[in-house]
Write a structure and sequence with these properties.
The complex is a heterodimer of chains A (about 220) and B (about 200). By secondary structure, chain A is mostly helical. Chain A is built from nine helices and no strands. Chain A has one domain. The model of chain B has no long low-confidence stretch (mean pLDDT about 90). Classes of the chains: A mainly alpha (about 220), B alpha/beta (about 200).
Chain lengths: ~220, ~200
Amino acid sequence: MFWWIIKRDILLAMRRRSDVLTTLFFFVIVVSLFPLSVGPEINMLRTMAPGVVWVAALLASMLSLGRMFSGDYQDGTLEQMLLSPHSLSLLVLGKAFAHWLVSGVPLVLMAPVLGIQYDLSVDALLVLTASLLLGTPVLSLIGAIGAALTLGLRGGGVLVSLLVLPLYIPVLIFGSGAVEASAAGLGYDAHFSLLGAFFLVSLVFAPWAVASSLRISME
Amino acid sequence: MLQGSNLVCIRGDRRLFRDINFSLEAGGLMQVGGPNGSGKTSLLRMLCGLSAPAHGDIRWCGETIRSLGEVYYRALTYLGHLSGTKDDLTAIENLRISSALAGTEIDEKKARDALRHIGLKGRELLPVKVLSQGQKKRVALARLLVCDTPLWILDEPLAALDIHAIKLIKELLEKHLIQGGMVVMTTHQEIDIAAAATHKLQLT
């Protein structure tokens, strides 16, 4: 069932490619604007690169959160999901995974290319990509909670950012921290351990929290 | 067996209905009637477990549906006002996915046969968004052909359908009832469905 949901969401995303591309282009443009506006000062660009890339990734993945459940809510598929004999948490995990594949993975793949604009070293680029690879699933999982809580509300898009952004902060700090540490020649194991811990905690708790929020939203 | 006792529904500070009692045995049909806004859909959503009654309880085979959870959902097919179909997917994809979600995976041939039977021959591979309102409804109703659940809860299954489709659905419901299934439905149309026992529940 898990795979059915993923297959369906990816199929839907492929039928509506503009949604996927919007997220990716937003990310590319935001990251590319900084070198243009700040000027070609290499040292400054190097120091700000991790932060800029991470903030842009965070905002880009938040852009698509609203669509995570709203389509299913409007056409009644969500009702059917709640009435499914399969575990709702598992279905939700499938949806979050599909969201990550559609909006997280393209960012991870694009990040090293964009990092070149900031003159990052190869090591730093690798660390940046790895930190995004570990961090973006957390963004999708936590974001799913916000999307489920604001389902069917007017102005849900603004509310979801207010709810979710504070929860994203730890991921942002340790994600960009890892790249800074590697650029400074320090160890970045601790950052990765913490990112991994965030990932595991959200993997266990987020589907359950989303399932409960969806049941409340649908009453 | 589906039983409801002393059901009360409150929306905001308005009481939609109170003291609804019924008991539905195998082969039984319950037709819920009443004017717009009398709480028909609210009652049906309650019976599905999507919302909780303010008072009273709903039992399936003697246990409350809350405590049964997924066991109850395995016995239930609900078709609501919203069709639960995706506009961007084809009729076949929609049917296969909604069936899988409901716990019965079907192959492409079975889905195609069901869609043909319900009168969508030649439209199986079209995205649902290009179909008419009645055809969309048929795609949703095709699920009844492939599911094997005893309890069907149908909210306005006949809305937007033409005479042929209504006849088809009537036969489908009668066949289900003869096989010992149960149907709870709302409709504004007069329709005679043969059943072992028919309850008419009138909400005011």
